[in-house]
Hints:
The complex is a heterotrimer.
Chain A: H1 3-9, H2 16-27, H3 31-58, E1 61-64, E2 67-72, H4 76-82, H5 85-116, H6 123-132, H7 139-149, H8 156-163, H9 178-202, H10 207-215, H11 220-231, H12 233-248, H13 252-257, H14 269-279, H15 283-307
Antiparallel strand pairs in A: 1-2
Helix pairs in contact in A: 3-15, 5-9, 5-12, 10-11, 12-15, 14-15
Chain B: H1 2-20, E1 30-36, H2 44-58, E2 62-68, H3 72-84, E3 91-95, H4 99-104, H5 112-117, H6 129-133, E4 136-137, E5 140-141, E6 144-149, E7 151-156, H7 157-162, H8 174-184, E8 186-188, E9 191-199, H9 204-214, H10 232-247, H11 260-265, E10 269-275, H12 279-285, E11 290-293, E12 303-304, E13 306-312, H13 318-331, H14 334-344, H15 357-365, H16 370-375, E14 379-380, H17 388-403, H18 409-425
Parallel strand pairs in B: 1-2, 1-3, 9-10, 12-14
Antiparallel strand pairs in B: 3-13, 4-5, 6-13, 7-10, 7-11, 8-9
Helix pairs in contact in B: 9-10, 10-18, 17-18
Chain C: H1 8-37, H2 59-67, H3 70-101, H4 107-119, H5 122-135, H6 142-146, H7 153-164, H8 168-176, H9 181-192, H10 194-209, H11 213-218, H12 227-232, E1 235-236, E2 240-241, H13 243-270
Antiparallel strand pairs in C: 1-2
Helix pairs in contact in C: 1-13, 2-13, 3-7, 3-10, 4-7, 10-13
Amino acid sequence: MSDSTAVLTGGRVSGRVGALAAARRFRLGGGSAYLYLLPSLVFLALFTFYPIGFSAYLSLFRWNVLNPEKVFVGLENYLHLWQEPLFWLVLRNNLFYALGTIPMTMALGLFLAVLVNQKLGAARNIYRVALFYPTMVPMVAAAMLWVWIFNPGIGLFNYYTAFLGIPRIEWLYDRHWALPAIIIMSIWKNFGYFMLIYLAALQGVPAELHEAASIEGAGAWRRFWRITFPLLMPATLFVFVVAIISSFQVFDQVFVMTQGGPADQTNVLTFYIYQHAFRFWDIGMGATLTTIFICLLLVLIVLVFRYVGRRVYYEAD
Amino acid sequence: MRRHWLTALMALVLVLAFAAGGAEAQQKLLRLTFYYPVGVAGPLAKVIGEMTDKFNKENPGIEVVPVYSGDYDPTLQKVQTAVMAGNPPDIFIVEISELPTLLAMNAVIPLDDYVKKAEGGKYWDDFFPAFRENSVVRGKIWWIPFQRSTPVFYWNKELFRKAGLDPEKPPQTWAELKEVAKKLTVREGSEVKQWGVTVSGGWNDWLFEAFVRQNGGWLINPEGTKVNFDSKEAVEALEFWVDLMYKEKVGPPHSTWGSTPPDFVAQRTAMLYHSTGILTFLRNSAKFDFGVAFMPKNRTFGAEVGGGNLAIARKISKERQDAAWKFIAWMTSSENAASWSLASGYVATRKSAYDVPAMKEFLAKDARYLVAREQLQYAFGKMMAPNFQKIREILKRQLDDAVDGKVAPKDAMQVVQKQVEAVIKR
Amino acid sequence: MRTWIRRPRLDRLATHLVLALVCLVTVTPYLWLLSTSLKFPKEVFTPTPQWIPWPVNLGNYAEVFDRAPFGVFLVNTVIVVTGILAVQLVTITLAGYVFARRRFRGAGLLFGLFLVQMMIPIHATFLPNFLTLQSLDLLNTRVAMMLPFFASGYGTFLLRQAFRQIPRDLEDAAVIDGCGGLRFLWHVLVPLARPTLVAFALISLVSHWNDYLWPLIVTDTPDVRTLTIGLGMFVQQESGADWTLLMAATAFVTAPLMVIFLVFQRKFIESFMFSGLKG
Lengths: 317, 426, 279
């Protein structure tokens, strides 16, 4: 049992121990658990597992514009990708994109949630809307807006950074800056989600803990790291996993803003899949890439659960 | 209390959803679905709606239901999905390069029989040859030109004046273009305030094809079996392009298709290569006088075409196909081709459309819309081949790399040649 | 150990300052959007940014409604997102509960499968899902736009984390008192997880409000279509975009979400006090 729950429940022990043990045994029953999962599983089976299975199956075929009848080729598609330099460039782009967006979005979400959680009066409502609203803008519209904002000549971004003395960057007109442009846009678009999650999680952090700690003389920073942050670990695990998944799923921004260019510098896995499945009409290869996509993510998530998940501190355990 | 309220709400929503979304009542009408994209700005969904309404009124036994399907890409996906599900739309419009894909999917029927009988045999010849090219594969006509465009050259007369150039004389040749662009590029320190010329990115492969045509070359033969990327003409075209962007630096090496028209309107670029489809946008947004011209020539004027064509699905009954043809023939009559062109800014696909009074009247007021038609005499069909999209990506990649100086034009084109040959054979 | 003298006013001021700055940067694109939506085409692309639209053009909004039946689209969107959310709340609460509390065979694997749902790119699913809906004869319906989303790995995961935060002792005590399983879930856990449920509700509403490709593929007629499809009409591959109309349409499409957000956040998150575990 944790210290904090002891503080709150006053540690009722002794006579209840036997009864508690009995209750725990009851809880280990598995039968009705599956019943609870049934509604979800029905929909998942139809709309998630069937498509994935379909993809995995198709990945073993050569089925494209030049081969309108599908031909079984086993793992040939996978082998072809292994040897394709563009595939590795695409993965590299995904990596850069992930490194660019994940830490920043998580940190911003957490930082702003903590700030907004203070007693700020009526202004708080305004702050929350202002910070969350980018998530509300439909991606297509947001992407077009940012194409304009990033326009090197007439866009807002360069106009205002010029005042700060920053040299003009050509953004989407420059092969080195197109991906950073998309990264910036994505951070703006998504940090609101994480802020909201952290805000909700912060409601579960008892104010008494903070008061007790500050009475004992702990500064704001220390209070945060020693008390708040550990209690937020379940939320952080969630946010981290979601951030990884959503970094892989970037598509609309690339589609609208760069179409993978210039010179494939913003070509990410989802766009690469799209090109194969729908532009090249290479269904076999599209399915192969989709299967790889899912496997990659699965591996990453498993790793995250294993290394970070172990360290997550659950109030209840 | 709260529990009941919530359950009631859920029930209500689900009931509403099921009830309101049910199947439509059966009618004795032949109902055809028509998937179409909207590729240029304007109230085009409305216009299509009005046109189909008119057709439906004039043809009581047929009801064409127009289905807005997004942009070119989503429309293709919607069509592909429906075809794969065995339930294709009866009529649809898709971007012209996709014909090989449609053929591979066995999704469309040849229209020769219909076309031969239409308008007493004079129908097909009335279409501009450049537009007809992308309809014919293996000797058969597969679809009819409908919303077509071609790249043109825009120039800012006011900026010409400021630079001491004759505002009524756009550059006619590549050499002139280079000279003029140098005079029109304005720098403040190391920053470019105004580009001389912008060759829009995004569909830069489309524009590159035009450059090759201007140099008297070709890239893919009409059958889609031979490619000519490493030819002298193509290499020279790329060299010229690289010269402008990398050596002389009179134009941005990369850009996006959607952001260069605003650049032109905001006077950040004095000259622009882009589609005729933006002419109306430029007219409405620009505060200065600008002109439209043929793209400058080298050996000859040259261009190719773009846009979408009307097709009839294969796996539908003959009765529906006949009705679909009626619709297509109606939509592509001279009158309707003219009114569609006027409403959308697309180039009218038929010669006789230009004799329609409304069209004549309009062109009298703004002759700039005529330039695209005039350029058609030098235009060819857009490159087509099975796997064209893949070829396109290979080409774009090398174009981008060459323009950044990462690869010499000659080597770039050889890479394209090699990779494309491999793709065509796969 | 340093004693920290609390200076609440300075703390508050600093917080306000930082937040205001961040908000300003975040909000700027939206202000730009609003400004553009009120401009005439000739005033939009100026060499330097003009913030105040002059002359003011209210016609863009009217034109947006003229182009497509946005009123109908709005109603449809509301129906679809609330339908999705209503069912999701049920499925994720049930599933989140068992993953948080119960030990059973295959729990890890099953949870993994739920997570996989978050990972699927839409382009991988729309064709098989289209085929499924066709066989259910549900094409071109609002239900079709909802069905694939009724189960939510995201929500299940989120609730699992939230439920695991609540001490086990509570449930043990409740079981002993005769209130177990579903009743405990409904009467105790759900109220305690309310901030998380509200957060999820907001996220689900927002994300399905903005669904584009799936509704486009699975519907044909305007009577069932949603806002984003209408919005898509203002973005075109060949000419870029109908800028003023796109901005006006976007403002219209996001406005209801803003209102919902303001209402919800005030009612639930703000007034909620951490009281569940006291006594």
